[in-house]
Amino acid sequence: MSKTTNQKAWILVIPVIVLVAFNALIPLMTVVNYSVQETFGSNVFFWEGIKWFEEVLNSSRFHESFLRQIFFTGTILAIEIPLGIAVALSMPKKGPWVSVCLVLMALPLLIPWNVVGAMWNIFALPDIGLLGRMINGIGIDYNFTQQPVAAWMTTIAMDVWHWTSLVVLLAYAGLCSIPDAYYQAAKIDGASAWAVFWHIQLPKMKRVLTIAILLRFMDSFMIYTEPFVLTGGGPGNTTTFLSIDLVKIALGQFDLGPAAAMSLIYFFIVLLVCWIFYTLMMRDEAE
Fold it and tell me: How many domains does one find in the chain?
């Protein structure tokens, strides 16, 4: 007896395909078109091949922005992942305080990105900001609008405040999915708190932590609104990350060819790193 297949279900997928094509594929093809051509307006294009890609890859400006982006993303991941796990472990698993903690953790995620940048800009101003006046009040010279180190620290603190909650919520969901039988067995064996975390909790959180790291890598590597509103990429080019530099080239200088090539390189870097990381994280489970 042969099994019949109903292909009519593909009709339900057509709206999704159209939406993805409209929101992703068509703009991507436009960027590809600009990346291999030059235009001086009036919709007149001249073929340039891979010239813009070579220019971007050989540009010291791109290299500096890329290194700043790598350092920022690495710092963010090194802080937010352990901190998120620690907060999730300290949250209650039962009782009325669970809802309170979850709501408090979700609040920073509900604030729009531009509002976060504006809030921290006012909060950290050395003259009128609560944080700025407090730091200067204890004798530390702090002005994120003029000092590169202060600008970096403020940008990192802002991102940690805004996005650690995402790691907390994902890690907490992973912890809540662990059956009580594992903890009972560990208690019978006399396992320490560290042994429980290392051999039970951390392995069971592996999938959600993989998602958390991937999301935070992509978000932090493509961050734009918060640092732009907070520092504008300054002082100087101190906090000019790849996304901010890309917007400056595309809209500030109106160099559409180099900007398109840079955006494609940017896209492939994010895609490649995510694929490598996911493959390495899930390799043990595949084996």
Answer: 2
